[in-house]
From TrEMBL:
Pathway: Amino-acid degradation; L-histidine degradation into L-glutamate; N-formimidoyl-L-glutamate from L-histidine: step 1/3
The organism of origin for this protein: Nocardia uniformis
SUPFAM superfamilies per record: L-aspartase-like (SSF48557)
First-tier enzyme category under EC: lyase
Protein name: Histidine ammonia-lyase
UniProt GO molecular function: histidine ammonia-lyase activity
Length: 515
């Protein structure tokens, strides 16, 4: 395997692909010489204000509702250390390493703009930890998504001052000071403004948005594949997916989804078997006929979310911020509303994409709607239950996804003695979207598992080359139709194949790359 290329963080934004490489592939990180020079230059302005007797928020004052107190120079090192310690107040389960790495990279990207006023060695400490594979332990609860993802980012900052805990690249839990020493790094003593600069950003929720977009780009292809297999196995028609029909309603995502389905169904003997004039069926149910309309709308929502994420990746979020002309100004750019809204929007479309998938699965199991297949696709209905309870599992997940689709961003709990009286809850929106993405993967995997069984039962009619390739990949781990077996391991095998991209890759071996 080729090593993952190093990501260079400079004055411009990091890309979606770079975030994913650092978060998921363990890519190392370096700072450009240009960014190090700009960081050093803006630090001189902060130092000037630190030496000025006039109070400046974040430099020589307390924080939040305590901003009215001027802090003398001899207490400012303690001020920064106290800020990080007190704000590292998370609780709950550990946040996944990929999320923490994404969050660290995005905070480093803001530091690299020179708009935060930190010293170069602070930024280099973040790059060093990422490159060494050291991931601070961050806990699930603690961020309101306003004034930055404060608690999660504080747990990261705690590690660079040599406190708290980190996990190594191998997952070993170590005290941060010990881990830094093993990596050849020294703890950082934070100076004026630096503690605040490390915790005042939307980096946690944005990192999770970028990772979710990466996941969902793959899952919309899987959804088209699943829908096409269900159309095939349920003796549906591919005529409704014709390009000229889709062009009558020119949503771009809809056209892409329909084209994918047409390509998956190409040369299917099952579809051709009921295409003639003697077929008495007029039109398919909505869950089959309208699959491109739903999956297409999901794609268009993803495009909107990607636009918002790109703008946020290009942002320098901090308060106060060092402007290009050298002013140090308070602002509200840390508010997570733009990111929170699209995170919630994505949870809605994930729930609906899973919902239509579950409806197609249910059609396979009902003798009144599956056009000649056994009840529940069972080998001997009554003795065997077939996929009856697999659909129950789908339904349970879909119900959970509907609950997760309730927006977090409509909630707000005031904090900091009413100074921070409206918050975004963007971190919470991101956490529930991660659970939703996992649920969608499972629902689609069960649909494909069921559709494959239904298609096998159409023998001697043969499926399309794309579907045949998918079923062959599935049959490497899951046997074909037969008497009842322990079903949970088969579902988990299908989920692994779905999540890894194996099933889509199998289809693409026949269709070429799907869009």
């Amino acid at each position: 395997m080729q090593p993952t290329p190093t990501v260079t963080v400079g004055l411009g934004p990091v890309s979606f692909e770079e975030v994913v490489r650092v978060a998921r592939s363990g890519a190392s990180v370096e700072l450009s010489d240009e960014s190090l020079a700009v960081i050093a230059d803006s630090r001189t302005r902060i130092q000037e204000l630190a030496d000025d007797p006039k109070p400046v928020y974040g430099v020589s004052t307390g924080f939040g509702a305590l901003a009215s107190r001027h802090i003398p120079q001899e207490l400012r090192t303690q001020l920064q250390r106290s800020l990080i310690r007190s704000h590292a107040a998370g609780s709950g389960a550990e946040v996944e390493a990929e999320v923490v790495r994404a969050m660290m990279l995005l905070r480093l990207s803001t530091l690299a703009t020179g708009r935060t006023g930190v010293r170069p060695q602070v930024a280099e400490a973040y790059a060093g930890m990422l490159s060494a594979g050291l991931t601070p332990v961050v806990y699930e609860y603690g961020s309101l998504g306003c004034s930055g993802d404060l608690a999660p980012l504080a747990h990261v900052a705690l590690a660079i001052i040599g406190e708290g805990q980190v996990r190594t690249a191998e997952g070993e839990l170590l005290p941060a000071g010990e881990a830094l020493a093993v990596a050849g790094m020294e703890p950082i003593t934070l100076a004026e403004k630096e503690g605040l600069a490390l915790i005042n950003g939307t980096d946690g929720m944005l990192g999770m948005l970028v990772l979710a977009l990466d996941d969902l780009d793959a899952l919309v292809k899987l959804a088209d594949l699943a829908a096409a297999m269900s159309v095939e196995g349920l003796l549906g028609t591919d005529r409704v997916f014709a390009a000229d029909l889709q062009a009558l309603r020119p949503h771009p995502g809809q056209a892409v989804a329909a084209e994918n389905m047409v390509r998956v169904l190409a040369d299917s003997a099952i579809v051709a078997s009921h295409r003639g004039p003697d077929c008495a069926r007029v039109q398919d149910a909505y869950s089959l006929r309208c699959a491109p309309q739903v999956a297409g709308a999901v794609r268009d929502t993803l495009a909107h979310a990607r636009t918002v994420a790109a703008r946020e990746l290009a942002s320098a979020v901090d308060n106060p911020v060092v402007t290009l002309d050298g002013r140090v100004e308070s602002n509200g750019n840390f508010h997570g509303a733009p990111v929170a809204y699209v995170l919630d929007f994505l949870a809605i479309v994930v729930a609906d994409l899973a919902s239509i998938s579950e409806r197609r699965t249910d059609r396979f199991l009902d003798v009144a709607r599956n056009h000649g297949l056994n009840a529940f696709l069972a080998d001997d209905p009554g003795v065997d239950s077939g996929h009856m309870i697999a659909q129950y599992t789908q339904a349970a997940i879909v119900s959970e996804l509907k609950r997760l689709a309730n927006p977090a961003s409509t909630d707000s709990i005031p904090s900091s003695a009413m100074q921070e009286d409206h918050v975004s809850m963007g971190w919470s929106a991101a956490r529930k979207l991660r659970r939703a993405v996992d649920g969608l993967t499972r629902v689609l995997a069960i649909e494909i598992l069921t559709a494959a069984r239904g298609i096998d039962l159409r023998a001697p009619l043969t499926s399309s080359p794309a579907t045949a390739a998918v079923i062959a990949a599935l049959r490497q781990e899951v046997p074909g139709p037969g008497t009842d077996r322990y079903l949970a391991p088969e579902i988990e095998a299908a989920v692994r194949l779905a999540a890894s991209g194996t099933l889509v890759a199998a289809a693409e071996s026949a269709t070429g790359p799907l869009s």
